[in-house]
Write a structure and sequence with these properties.
Blueprint: H1 6-20, H2 24-43, E1 51-55, H3 59-73, E2 79-82, H4 90-98, E3 105-107, E4 121-125, H5 137-148, E5 152-156, E6 179-183, H6 196-199, E7 201-205, H7 211-216, E8 221-224, H8 226-229, E9 247-251, H9 258-270, E10 275-280, H10 285-291, E11 296-299, E12 317-320, H11 328-340, E13 345-347, H12 349-357, E14 370-371, H13 375-382, H14 389-403, E15 406-409, E16 415-417, E17 423-426, H15 438-451, H16 457-479, H17 486-491, H18 493-502
Parallel strand pairs: 1-2, 1-4, 2-3, 4-5, 5-6, 6-7, 8-17, 9-10, 9-12, 10-11, 12-13, 13-14, 14-15
Antiparallel strand pairs: 15-16, 16-17
Helix pairs in contact: 2-3, 3-4, 9-15, 12-13, 15-16, 16-18
The structure holds ligand NPW, adenosine-5'-diphosphate and potassium ion (K).
């Protein structure tokens, strides 16, 4: 699913109107109808539910006014609060005129801001994608007032004061919504942790925006849902053998962190690898043999850390990092790996920290290497703290471009940046996965997928991220969020991948 800029949203709006031969007022009516249907379906509001709709001067306010009329027609008694304005949009004016006189309308006034009761449903239709500058004056006061109320706050399209695709100055007034109901496609702002307190839960309401126009819009940010992956994860052929899926090599573990190597090994096995060899310091030998008997175990001569790179000849892909530690000898193993590798690499955890601390190693990264930092590891990689989440995203894009690699930034919406500058946000996963070892599981799974020659680097990464989160979503149904541990994710990798294998075999854009 494409993530459009605010400017592209306007192009889509106009393109839809043209292509479908409708008026902008009709499009607004679709938006208001979709909002009404959501309110009725999601809230099952009692007939006396106090709906308060705050309307700004543009089409966002127009949506609010049209919704007020539809609520009234459905038997509710909404009240409308208008932000005084000198100029308003044509569709705002048209919907103000169409508002039945029985719907109470009030002008917002700085000295007489209304008290919204705790049981009220507030609809924030002040500003949407047309926001052109930070809110000041009365609008900012209204937002602050709204944020203090105990009422349920639902933002129409965008929380007012939030820009769709860029940061706003610190301390700007922004509505803190419980829900944001956006039209058709998500906004970039929804994916960034710094906006979570404003956006709340977000949902997309379909209003029939024109698919042919969407198709033509060039974007560099996408949101990956299951339909995008349909057909990208091949079934296992009937006459396949273990060689079909590749032999993976994992370099992981150090004294006290053998568990990371175990989790990554288990995840690689559940990820469908044909064969797995795990290279581990001696201290981990018995543990790994007992906990991942399907893996072959190659003990390093050193007791507590990896000190030697094995012969790479047999392997289809190599993963390095989980629990590795940052010993000098292990850094040399990493260096030799980067110099020698002719097969896909997956680099995680301490191997990333070693790259960050020894920047010259970054020049050795083979093209299409997959790196999986969390934000702190990513900061060590770049050596430059990000100003904010938007800046970090651009750093990510730049890093993947410059290094010709695939770089993941892990989080609630894990982002994958590709060498051609695209960013894909993953849609699966849950806060139960914020627990030690979840990342090791991801590395093992990605290693298995990179060892499978049938998958491109990009598809392997997208499938791995999606299936990892999906496995977490299946696991959490049994464990609850607090009770989820990384090993639970491993148990559901198989079912998550099977869902993708069973999905239809055509590719849906
Ligand atoms: N395709 C779609 O997605 C559809 C979109 N639809 C809806 O349209 C919405 C976008 O409408 P929109 O373009 O009229 O912009 P909107 O957000 O109402 O605000 C613009 C007004 O606010 C003003 N203004 C701006 N910043 C300000 C500030 N800081 N402080 C004060 N004023 C400020 C600005 O004035 P100006 O910047 O020109 O001075 C202008 O007057 C969209 O979010 C969705 O709800 C649906 O109806 C149908 C399908
Ligand atoms: N709130 C969340 N929602 C969805 N996924 C999450 C959330 N928190 C963490 N995750 C996922 O869990 C994994 C954590 O990885 P990482 O931070 O490397 O953990 P560790 O180093 O302990 O293994 C990542 O894949 C991340 O996307
Ligand atoms: K809004």
């Amino acid at each position: 699913m494409k993530i459009l800029s605010a400017a592209q949203t306007r192009i889509l709006d106009e393109g839809t109107i043209k292509a479908q031969g409708i008026t902008s007022l009709e499009l607004m009516e679709r938006a208001a109808t979709a909002l009404l249907n959501w309110l009725l379906d999601a809230l099952h509001p009692a007939a006396d539910t106090p709906f308060h709709i705050l309307c700004g001067p543009g089409n966002n306010g127009g949506d609010g006014l049209a919704l007020a009329r539809l609520l009234h027609q459905s038997g509710y008694q909404p009240q409308v609060w208008l932000l005084p304005t000198e100029k308003s949009s044509a569709d705002y004016a048209a919907n103000l005129q169409r508002l039945p006189t029985a719907v109470p309308r009030h002008e917002l006034h700085a000295r007489r801001l209304p008290t919204f009761p705790a049981g009220a449903v507030m609809l924030d239709a002040l500003f949407g994608t047309g926001l052109s500058r930070p809110l000041t004056g009365l609008a900012a006061q209204v937002v602050a007032h709204l944020n203090e109320s105990q009422a349920l706050c639902i933002a129409v399209d965008m929380p007012s004061g939030l820009l769709a695709d860029a940061p706003q100055p610190a301390d700007s007034a922004v509505v803190q919504a419980h829900y944001t109901l956006s039209f058709e496609l998500p906004k970039l702002a929804f994916f960034l942790p710094q906006n979570a307190e404003f956006v709340g839960e977000w949902e997309l309401l379909s209003i029939g925006l024109e698919a042919t126009v969407i198709h033509k819009l060039a974007v560099d940010n996408c949101f990956i849902e299951e339909n995008f992956l349909v057909g990208r994860y091949p079934k296992r052929p009937k006459f396949s053998h273990k060689g079909t899926f590749g032999h993976a090599l994992l370099l992981a573990g150090s004294r006290g962190k053998i568990g990371a190597a175990v989790l990554a090994s288990q995840a690689c096995l559940r990820g469908g690898t044909g064969l797995l060899t795990t290279c581990i310091p001696q201290v981990g030998y018995d543990i790994l043999q007992a906990t991942a008997p399907e893996a072959m175990c190659l003990p390093d001569p050193a007791l507590g850390h990896l000190s030697e790179l094995p012969d790479l000849q047999p392997y289809a892909a190599v993963g390095i990092g989980p629990g590795l530690g940052q010993e000098e000898a292990s850094r040399e193993v990493l260096r030799q790996l980067l110099e020698a590798a002719k097969v896909p690499l997956v680099i995680d955890a301490d191997a990333l920290n070693l790259l960050g601390a020894n920047q010259e190693l970054l020049d050795l990264l083979p093209p299409d290497t997959l790196l999986t930092p969390h934000p702190k590891e990513f900061e060590r990689l770049t050596g430059e703290p990000a100003r904010d989440d938007y800046h970090r995203l651009e750093q990510l894009r730049q890093f993947a471009r410059q290094r010709r690699c695939f770089c993941v930034l892990k989080g609630a919406y894990t982002a994958l940046a590709t060498p051609d500058g695209q960013i894909y946000f993953n849609s699966t996963g849950n806060p139960g996965m914020a627990t030690g070892g979840s990342g090791d599981v991801l590395t093992g799974l990605l290693l298995a997928l990179r060892a499978d020659k049938r998958l491109s680097a990009c598809n392997a990464a997208l499938i791995g991220l999606y299936a990892h989160g999906r496995a977490g979503d299946l696991a959490v149904q049994q464990t609850g969020e607090a009770g989820l541990v990384a090993g639970d994710i491993v148990r559901f990798i198989g079912p998550a991948l099977q869902e993708l294998a069973d999905s239809l075999t055509h590719i849906v854009e």
